[in-house]
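Reply to dn_fold:

You asked what the input looked like. This is it:
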Amino acid sequence: MTARRRPSVLLSCAMILAAAVVGVPFYYIVVNTFKTQAETAAAPLAPPSALYLDNYARVFDSTPIAQSFLNTLYVTVLSIVIMLVVGSMAAYAMLLRRTLLNRLIGVLLVIAFLVPGQATLIPVYRILVALRLVDSLEGLILLYAAGSIFCYFLIQGYLRSLPISIFEAARIDGAGPWQIYWRIVLPLIRPILITVGVFQTMWIWNDFITPNVFISSPEKQTLVLQVYKAVGQFGVDWPAFLTLSVIVLIPVVVFFVAMQRHIVNGLLQGGVKG
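and this is what came back:
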């Protein structure tokens, strides 16, 4: 009995240690939003001596949080919709017609997926300049829409786990490609669409490099850029920086917790069918 309990005790200790490693930075961020600059510098890990809420009041007074939130929400929602629609359509089309041309396109997509985004910043910037989409939220949406490649690979893997007889039966009954896509494919791939959508949402919401390079107007900045504003040339306003970080994290944490069940179901269904 003791021998059986020993692995579970070791596993519990390992999980507690892992939770502590993950939880300490989050504790550090949240606790220091309720401190003054001097108190944060003196004892960053100590609990606050009093509940100091001036950091939040100062941040909301000096920073256009509402406008940045709407900008981030607008870019995130439209980008996710485009990625899921394009990725699912491409995966369905490649599965429907397995020709040599489609295989070559698949190889090109793999190569494009492997190229780091940082390596293409300059040519992409020049393209957006030519399209007059630099310093615009629509330009950001166009850039994030390239994430359709990632969605395509995951959705295609999920579609391959489904029995092809479903699509053949619908075709025999007279359904066209669009009818099969809307009435059969989309309901069947709903779990993987939700899973991919959640991960891509977290990526876009927390992304810093893309808006920092392509957005310069203050009224078009995202929430992450507002956090970066707290970093000065010769110093950092740590209370403001950490307070803005908490404000940015709250919607993502709430969204992830709300969608956690769907993420697990999508991963489990994909694993079982595969």
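The chain is about 75% helix and 0% strand.
Hope that clears it up.
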